UniProtKB/TrEMBL annotation, chain A:
It comes from the Bacteria. This is ABC transporter permease. Belongs to the MlaE permease family. Keywords: Membrane, Transmembrane, Transmembrane helix. It comes from Mucilaginibacter gilvus.
Automatic annotation (TrEMBL), chain B:
Transmembrane segments: none annotated. Keywords: ATP-binding, Nucleotide-binding, Transport. It comes from Mucilaginibacter gilvus. It holds the Pfam family ABC_tran. This is ATP-binding cassette domain-containing protein. The keyword Nucleotide-binding applies. InterPro entries: AAA+_ATPase, ABC_transporter-like_ATP-bd, ABC_transporter-like_CS, P-loop_NTPase. One of its GO terms (molecular function) is ATP binding. It comes from the Bacteria.
Length: 258, 260
């Protein structure tokens, strides 16, 4: 039993070490050699544009549902007029970034993990390496930077769509104009509501890209390992999103809300 | 401005120059000793076939030559330099001179055939002139008889076509040494023969030295100037194909009988 635990611990530590090496290789490759602009733009399109519908729809439904769920309690407290503000603050600070990141973890981390995993299995990464090209620059740097940039953009768009969903829900029950609703939303927000959320989503995006690339790049050579890489990428990226979120909330509270 | 990677012609070329020198290498994976004190020399312009059954460590040998793996003991020298001692830059320079054809062809499946062939030109040789790139891509594809497939995706190609494109992608940078990992595995006899003849033609055209890892006797017969037989991680015999086929050694003969 103790031996098993020790083996597990050693394996875990090896994994941590490998991730550290992978991170340093990623970081080094951002600045050395030529940057793969065309592949980076293609990844931004694949990651950003192709995820827009999914993130938008999810955010819209969440905004709508939140208003429908909150309304009875707010009416009981006589705080019905606070609904736009409540939704805006909760969506911009927390719901929007986390929902977007979780959706992206499911869609993007798995896709990167499976793609790189299958490239590993079919020796495409080895072929790239022995040809003298740099697979870290072409495959990893472009994907991680694309997720780091596109996830915050998706989250911002998701925020707007989520607030619009909230407006539609509120409009079913209360007679509120579009301009009044958005005026109430915007006037209740401050710059410090946007900034930490934006920074947080950049870290979410980085985690999604990094985990997807790491899992794919280090998958074993077998078809089963492609599935494992994709699955493991989603689980690990989702976990990291919550860990980063918990940490970010603490830091934000200390810096801005005390 | 990025420096264009220089290759071909930097080395002093002599006919009997040893381009690959493997000296007493051993390699284990866990408790499994795959290579046991292997030595092999390949001269410039020579085609050496390493013949052996699957899982005998043949592929591990050539992976050590390009630095994908490092031997536990012994040294691998390419053009006189020890591969294990090379830094990133040296290794990259070496890899522009050593082509590696993978068993599966290893085509980048998100790219067309043209993009696959352009990849080493733009990323490794840093070529920028579109006309020159196009000309080189078309020339090498014509060499493998697949000019018509230039805009196809790898998924649209048959196994034999994939290997041809893989070979074209490797040859496009004009390497001095070619390493073939089971080039005819999984192909029908006619396509296998075509690929073997193609290897021979490309070797003559580009004047490369080659190590061909195979268990296909016909491929060995067509392509090999010299054949080395590997069994249980050791080289057990060496000579021309005909010499080995008529060997008095029972193990060598039995090996020929087993694999044919």
């Amino acid at each position: 039993m103790a031996e098993q635990a020790l083996t597990g611990y050693k394996k875990w530590m090896e994994g941590v070490g490998e991730q550290g090496v992978f991170f340093s290789r990623f970081f080094r490759n951002i600045f050395t050699g030529g940057f793969e602009w065309s592949e980076f733009v293609r990844q931004c399109y694949e990651i950003g544009y192709k995820s827009f519908m999914l993130v938008g729809l999810t955010s819209f439904i969440m905004g709508l549902v939140l208003i429908l769920q909150l309304r009875p309690s707010m009416v009981d407290m006589g705080a019905e007029s606070m609904l736009p503000k409540t939704l805006a603050v909760s969506f911009i600070r927390e719901m929007g970034p986390v929902i977007t990141a979780i959706i992206c973890a499911g869609k993007i981390a798995s896709s990167i993990g499976a793609e790189l995993g299958s490239m590993k299995v079919t020796e495409q990464i080895d072929a790239m390496e022995v040809s003298g090209a740099n697979p870290m620059q072409y495959l990893v740097v472009t994907r991680i930077l694309a997720t780091t940039i596109m996830v915050p953009i998706l989250a911002l768009m998701g925020d707007v769509i989520g607030l619009f969903g909230g407006f539609l829900a509120l409009n079913f029950t209360d007679d509120i104009s579009f301009s009044l609703y958005f005026h109430k939303c915007i006037s209740s927000l401050e710059f410090i509501d946007f900034l930490p959320a934006l920074v947080k989503t950049m870290f979410f995006g980085f985690a999604i890209g990094f985990v997807g690339c790491y899992k794919g790049f280090h998958s074993d050579k077998g078809t089963e390992s492609v599935g494992l890489a994709a699955n493991s990428a989603v689980v690990t990226a989702s976990l990291w999103i919550f860990v980063i979120d918990a940490f970010a909330v603490q830091v934000t509270s200390i810096l801005f809300y005390r | 401005m990025e420096e264009q990677v220089k290759h071909n012609g930097e080395q002093k070329r002599t006919p009997n120059e040893v381009v690959v020198d493997i000296e007493h290498i051993s390699k284990s994976f866990g408790d499994n000793e795959v290579l046991k004190d292997i030595s092999l020399k390949v001269k410039r312009g020579e085609n050496v076939v390493v013949l052996g059954k699957s899982g005998q460590g043949k592929s591990v040998t050539i992976q050590c030559i390009v630095g994908l793996l490092n031997p536990d003991e012994g040294v691998v020298k390419v053009f006189g330099d020890v591969v294990a001692d090379m830094g990133d830059k040296q290794l990259k320079a070496l890899r522009t001179k050593v082509g590696f054809l993978f068993q599966s062809g290893a085509l980048y499946d998100s790219m067309t055939v043209r993009e696959n062939l352009e990849f080493p030109l733009t990323r490794v040789l840093k070529m920028k002139d579109k006309a020159e790139i196009d000309q080189r891509v078309e020339e090498v594809l014509e060499g493998v008889g697949l000019l018509d497939a230039i805009d196809k995706m790898p998924s649209d190609l048959s196994g034999g076509m994939r290997k041809r494109v893989g070979l074209a992608r490797t040859m496009i940078v004009k390497p001095e040494i070619m390493l073939y990992d089971e080039p005819t595995t999984g192909l029908d006899p006619i396509t296998s023969r075509e690929i073997s003849e193609l290897i021979l033609n490309m070797q003559k055209k580009y004047k490369t030295s080659s190590i061909i890892i195979t268990h296909d006797m016909e491929c060995a017969k067509i392509t090999g100037d010299r054949v080395v037989i590997m069994n249980d991680g050791e080289y057990i015999a060496e000579g021309s194909f005909d010499e080995l086929q008529s060997s008095d050694d029972e193990l060598v003969r039995s090996f020929f009988n087993e694999t044919t």
